[in-house]
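User: Fold this, then the next.

Assistant: Folding the first:
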Amino acid sequence: MDIVIAHYGLDRVITKEECTATLASQGNNSEVVFIDFEAGHAKLSELFDLPFENLALAQQRKFVEVVKPILDQYPAAYLHYFGLTPIPVAFHFGCLVGNTHPYTIYQWHHKQNKWFSKIDAPSEGYNFQLKTVNHPLEKQKGKGNVIIRIGTSFVIDPQSTHDVVIHPENEFDIELVTTNVDSLFNQHNISQVVEAFQQILNSYSNKLIDREQIHLFISSSAGLPFALGTRINSNIYPYIQTYQYDRIQTPKFREAILITKEVNDRVVLTDEDRKVAATVRQQWEVQLQKQLKPFIKMITGNRPDNWLQTVCETTDEYDLVSKRLKSPWNAVAHIGDTSLKVDKIDLLTVNVDEGFEYTEKTNSWQLDDGFLSGLKRRLEKDVNTDVMQAGRLFFFHEALHYSKSGHRLTKEIATGIGQFPKVIEEADYQADVWGLLTEYKYCCLYEPDKLKYGLKEFFCNAIDTAVETMWSFVDTGNELSSVQIRSMNRFLNWYWQWVLIEDLPGKGSLDAIIFILFDKPVIEFAGAPMELRSHRTFYKLNNRNTRGQQLAVFANNRVRRFAPTEIDEIVAGFMQLKGEKIKTALKSFQVML
């Protein structure tokens, strides 16, 4: 059995007819299974600005749904790869397919307008010859980055790569004596480049065992990146950063798709998952249009002096808590100044990287199926959490972020914002508090049953719902091997506040709760190994050596630092995505204070 894969995404469809005609012209009339795999539809002029992380997520899910079952059904099948996609997309697809099936690469000849697996050399007397690659002779210790440049169409200027990867520890070049856009005119030439790449990977795994990340720069025709990607085993090469090139940009390369083991471990969505997601998406849209918009109009209709006035139930209540309204809380926008009053949810877009995206031009929210189905699954485990409340808290939080009167966290500013963890931590905390208090006012008006057992229980339950929403973004159904440091800080902040609120006497009061909420905790975890991925810093959680793991907090004008007896429970809580373990450990810390 032969399998034909038409992998396209450059504003040109690859049809079954042209693929089978190409095979027939080479005397291959075998029975084939045809896989139509569209991975976008970009023009060449658009490549540099493509949302590569979105494309990778959509491609990974489509691969699991469409390609993997066929590869598993025919383990001895021969692959015929027809590729016309951006280089990072082709490489990522090769990583997904792997090295378990033999294949032939077919490429599009732009001058002759035909697909070929073998063709004449680009010019008479052209000699395909690789330059010698220098490999390390001994093992080299130490962290650092590794650059691999592969130039078969054009020579890649090392300085252009140094503009984005500063001071790499090792550099490898796979170059031709004479580069040419049609240099890979047969399978033997492709195989030589792939084998040279494999030799570099072998040096990386055997001689550079402490190096952290491979940065891969490729200048070649479309088929080669797929073939290179098939050589990647995520257990051995866990972090490979690919790049997109544009000669008129400064710098000329930009980060595209980061190949990680975590991406490959993402949860596979079933048909039932997608149905659940579609239901939640529709319910949230109805809630946005039928409940939230009238709510916003009601509480802001009489031109409030400030946002806290909009969330208090009575004038007496506001008079009591307004003394807490000091900088920076007194300058926060109220909900009537956000776009939420004119927003809508895109009901058709179902694959969105990072879980969601907001488009200012259309005032529309795109919500990912994995985010929605995973959130519903997590919330169903606790009778005190609620998917509709999660939707409100989500939109309240993000509305303040995106508002021009609020945080002005536009798409341009938000891209790469993870490089500034302290800044985004402050903005996230303020948006969380703002959302919780806005939710309090909403429930006073529309869902008073949530308040029947008192404010303490209401806010603890609402915080649980909000934090479960945060967990759903990283929940793949597996234990976490690492966690982004700013994410860990956000979880610790809210579990700390949850414990403080739970410890209030009686049923709690709004004044006491606002006093806690307006005092952002300063709490940090330390002692686990750290690693840098795509400008984001992570803690490794599966480290056996827990000696030295500690918590530190600045509270009551004092710095306290120690290793609670339950420090292992904090790490276990993050690995297992279980907040109750983290709460238990933090309670012991607060008792010490």
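Now the next one, as you asked:
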Amino acid sequence: MINIFFLISLIMYLVYSIWKLRKDLHMIQLNSYVTNRFFKWIKQNFVNIIKAKDFLPAFALIPLYFEKIYVFNLIWIACYCFLFLTRGKVQEKKKLVFTNRVKRLFTISILLIILVLSIIYSKVLLSNNLIIPFIFLILLNPLSSIVMLTSNLLITPVEKSINRWFYNDARKKIKQMNRLTVIGITGSFGKTTTKYILNKILSEKYNTLMTPESYNTPMGITKIIRTQLKPTHDIFIAEMGAMQKGDISELCRLVSPKIGLLTAIGEQHLASFGSIENIISTKNELIDSLPDDGIAFFNMDNLYIRELAERVKITSIFYGIESENLRFSAKYIQYTSKGTIFTVCDNNGNEVVFKSKLLGRHNVYNILAATSVACELGMDLMTISHAIKNIIPVPHRLELKNYSQDITLIDDAYNSNPVGSEMALEVLKEMKGNKKILVTPGMIELSDRQYDFNKAFGIKASRICDYIVLVGKRQTFPIQEGLKEENYPIDKIYIANSFNNANQHLQAIVQSGDVVLFENDLPDNYNE
């Protein structure tokens, strides 16, 4: 009978442990299954990971010490029932996706816990010394992240083998499609929006396929090639993301692009790259991979790209707004509550007015980039301008929304970088309205320059915004310093502890005619 109670005790422990492991699974997915990144996240969030209530079952050890086994089991079961029923539900901004890899990792983690429980149960059957094994269990539960970290280490060799097979299969498939033109797009920012714009334009004439959403990793692009790319496709547009040197080269070996487009290079993801020089070198891997008859497209208003373009020997096409000797340029840029109006010019003297629902100077660059490629592939400016009219904003990238009937909301919450955030503030400045309100947690992954960039962002915001809602006291400290330096009124600043809290406060202060900018939204693994 005692053994049955012990078994129930261990089952309740397992149920709660599985819930804890699911949370860790979500975090390791947000950290791209990279062991070092997940370990770093654990160190940074250790205080938040260890919950005091997870040690509640320690009270059950008191009757166990006095060999009151039934009482121990009842208290232990009651504690874990209580922990499970009061676990709470955290609203996830980016949901856990149960891919095959996630299922394998989850299974390994659960098996590790079951292995530990089996050892404990055998100890129960063979020994009277039970306190030490159950102390171990109590300590193990708050450290479920270590179980997930161990599971990831164990399964990484298997995952690499599986991924390599899929990668080679996708590479073989794309090599056999001789009539397919592959376009690679990379940059520190702007690549996703440019991809969507280019796909919309080219689909007017060609059968196109693009990598959806932010599918810009080897396995993401591999999946699209193996499941969606057909022999009937004329053009494949691949967005190429990178977190370290060599990432773009790996993607280029996979898709063999003939056309390469560099949207912009900036200080985004400095934390993983280490330096701006590494970012430049990595983005240039796309251009270096192009064949002798390939074509490279460059945003010449970007200093880092301009320096790269001067060294390229293959056919190069330049676009921009301010630079000289451009094939394509834009002028007469105007922002309205309905979007952006500007004129596109080519070096043959042709000029066409473009009307777009997209906001911001950086979207003018994105449209110019897509226009440059489309023209090279045989389309004319007038046809392109008609396609541009119907393009809706990519979600959360300077997307115009109606907060209510008389309130304009600019949603730029997908991510934020020094250049993009400055352009978003410029859009806010140009919009007609009463109060200009900013809601932001600031910028991340900027390494040792993160403080300076966020402080500068605060200084810029102080000159444009009538009210500022900051999300996260610790995260937004540099912005607070920038506001303080500019003597920004304290009563015009609100520091929220979460986006839910920020939204509640916003509803209390926003009024008819106001314009609200949501700039950046940190993923769940950056929650304070």
